[in-house]
C-alpha cells in the first residue's frame, strides 16, 4: 500500500479495535502494534522505505509472513554473513529509532511541551492548536514523522513527567527484554556464530568475537553485535563494567560462609531480583536494571567514580577502530542511539533513577574518530543534542570525571566539539534573519563544549580558599523611584550578578583556576564569533527565554572583542534606562531634568573639580554614576560625543598616578604602580579612583594605567598569593623562592625572624611582626613556608587592605550590576581598561576609510602612511592620542578603530585637525611629502584642548 493508504486506511482500521474506550493507553497499544507491523512487514510502505534509505523489493515471497521482531526469526534461516541477516538487523535498529520519534510526536500532539508561549502549530501547548482525539493524534503523529516535522524541546515544567503512552511502551519494552536479560546473566560457554545471546559487551567478549571473526575472515558477527549493543542505551549502559573489588574484610567474610549461608544469600539475591523487576515495570527508565557486573553498589560510588572500566573501553576502541567496516558500525549505531537517549533524558528522568546511565556518554566520547568528517554530518550532532539534555547533577559528575583526564584527552574532546561547531558555521550562511543561535547542532555542541571547559578548569591548578572578604556596607540604591514605582507598582528585587548554575554545582569558578589543563584561548571559536549577531544574542541573554540560546552564557567560546561588544550593549541599555527614569521622575516631581552625569571641570584643577563632584554624587545618589558621562572643560567649546571624555580620563589618570601625590608607588623595574600603604590620603580618595576606573569601562574609554595582574584578580574577588609576586614584586618573589629552595640550614645560615622591615612615604624604615613576638621567632626549614605565606599576605593584602577596599568599593559602585565578572577573566579586564599594548599600524591602514575626495590610491595618502610608518614608537603614540583621544589600541587591536581620513581643503599652512569622538583626521592636501610630515608632527606634538572649527 502507498503512504496515503497507510495513513488513512490501515491505521484507522487497526485503531477501531481500541476505539471503544479511546484511552491513551489503548491508542498507544494500537499505534505500537501498527508501527511494528508496518516497519517489519516485507510489504511496508514506500515512504518508510524511502525514509530508511532501503530499495523497494522487486518481488515479494508469498510464503513469507510479517515478523514482529527480526531477532525472533529462526536462527537456522540465516548465516553470519547473510545479507538478509544484516538487513533484518538494520530494520530492527531503524524501527526502534522510528518508534521513539513517533512516540514524541504523539506526546507533543496530546500533552504538549509545557511552554505556554510555544509557536509550533503541531504542539498541544501552542495557543492556536486545535485539539484532536487520540485516534486523530496517532494518525497525525505518523504524518509528522513522515515529513520530519519540528519537535519541541520540553519546557522545564514538563521534564521528568511521562505520559501514559510512554509508560505503556516502556513496560512493553521491559517485558520484551526480560528473557534476554536472564540469558545475559548466564555464562556463555563456547562461541556461537550469531552471538544473539550477547546483549552487552565486556572487553573479554569483544576479543572472543574478534578472534573468531579473524579466523573465519568474516567480521559480520562482530559488526552486528556492535550495532546491536551500541545502538541500545540499555545494552551500552551494562557494558564494560568494572569487576567488583572486594575489601579484605569482605574476602574474609566470604571465606567463613558455610553452605547454609550460601543458600540464604541465594534466596536474598532472588528476592532482590524480583523486587527490582517489579520496580522496573512501574517506570520506563528502570529498564536499566541490576546485573551481574556490580550494579547493586551504585549508591556506593563517589562523586567522581563510575562503574565503567574506562581503560577497557579505550583498549577496545584501539583494537577495533583500525577496521573500516567495524568503524562504520559504530557510526550507524550512534545515529540510532542518540534520539532514544534524548527521549530518555527529556521525558523519562532516567539519570535520577539509574546514575549508571552516564556510562554510555563516557563510552561514546572515548571514540577517537568522533571528529572525523563521517560523524560531523549527522551522528555527532544527534549525540550532542542528546548529551546537552543531561541534568545538572549528571553534567557535574561527568565534569569531575573528565577533570582527571590528561591534557591530551581534554584537548581531543575539545577539538571534537570545536570541529563540529566550525563545520556547521562554515557550511551555512548565517545573518540577522538566519541566526546561528537557532542552529540546534551548534547550540548543542556549545553546551557539550561547556562541560569540557569546566573539566579543564577543575582539572587545573585551583585556588578556592583565597577569596577577598565582601564589602561590609552594601552599595546604596538610588534614592529615585524606579519606573515601576512611578507607575504605582512595588519595587522589584534587583537581580544580583549572574552566576552560572554549573559553577554553583561544582563549587568552582573560572577565576579559581590558576593554570588550566589547556589554555583558555583554545576554547575560543573565531568562525562562530564572526557570524554571531551580538545584538540579538545579548537580547536572548537578558530575557533568558527557554527557547532561545545565548552564547553569552558560554563566554569561554567568545573572544574579547565579542564580549566587549556585549558589555557595550549592556552599558548602553542601562544608560538609556537611567535616562528614561530620570525624565519620568522629573515630570512627576517637577524637578530639573538631568539625564546625564555631567562633569564641568577646569583643566588646571581637574582633580579637585572632578573628585569633589564625583564624591557628592556617590554620597547623594550613586545611581547617577550609571548615567552617560558628559564632560565639559571650562572655557572650551568642545562638545562631548566621546572624545572630550577620553581626554578627561587621560588627564585624571596622569594626575592621580603622579608619584608626588603619594597615593601609589612606582617600581622602575616593572613599570607598575602599587598602592602606597603609608599614604596620607583618606579612603574617600581611593574610592573616587575606583569610580574613575569603573566609569572608564562603563563609558568604553581606555586608560593609561599600569597595575600588576594581581590588582585585577583582587577586583574579581581573589586575594593575592605567592605566585602574584612574580609581576608585582619580582625581586621579593625571587628572594622568597630562593629561601624555599635553600638546601642548607635556614636558621643557622640566614639568621632571620618573622619580623620584616619596609619604608614609609619618606623612606623611613618601619618594622612589622608577621606573628606575635615575631622578632624572637627564628625562621627554620620547617616553618619557612609559613613565613613566605605570611609575608606575601602582608605585602599584597593586609598592608593595603584599607586602601584597596575603598578602591574596590568605588569600582563596584559603577559595575555592580554589570555582567563584567561573568564574562571576563582578570587578564581580559586589564585589556578592557588599558587596551592593547601591541600597535599594529598595518591593521589600522587596512581598515581606514577615506572621504572628501581621498582614496587609498591618492598620492597624499601614500605619503601619509609612509610618514606614519617612519615614526618612532613615541611619535606613533602621540599620533594615536591626537587622532583617537588615547595612545592605546582598543580591544582587538588598531584594526577595530575604523579611522577616517577626510580631505580638508587644498594646500594650506593650517595644521591637521581631528574629531577624537569619531576617530576622524581632517587632512589638507599639502603640496609635498616634506610639508605633510612637518605639519603632522607639529599637530601631534602640541595638541591640547578642544575648539570649534
TrEMBL record:
What compartments host this protein? Cytoplasm; Nucleus
Catalytic activity of the protein: S-ubiquitinyl-[E2 ubiquitin-conjugating enzyme]-L-cysteine + [acceptor protein]-L-lysine = [E2 ubiquitin-conjugating enzyme]-L-cysteine + N(6)-ubiquitinyl-[acceptor protein]-L-lysine
Q: Where along the chain is composition biased (Polar residues)?
A: 159-178, 287-296
Classification via PROSITE patterns? HECT
Judged by the first EC level, this protein's enzyme class is transferase
Q: Where is this region: Disordered?
A: 39-90, 157-193, 247-300
Alphabetical UniProt keywords: Biological rhythms, Cytoplasm, Metal-binding, Nucleus, Phosphoprotein, Proteasome, Transferase, Ubl conjugation pathway, Zinc, Zinc-finger
GO molecular function terms attached to this record = ubiquitin protein ligase activity; zinc ion binding
- Give the matching Pfam families: AZUL, HECT
Q: Where is the HECT domain?
A: 621-949
In the UniProt entry, which residues are flagged as the active site?
917
Report biased composition (Low complexity) as residue ranges: 270-286
EC numbers on record = 2.3.2.26
- Pathway assigned to this chain's UniProt record: Protein modification; protein ubiquitination
Q: Where is the composition biased (Basic and acidic residues)?
A: 49-62, 179-193, 247-258
* Name under which the protein is recorded: Ubiquitin-protein ligase E3A
* Gene that this polypeptide is encoded by: UBE3A
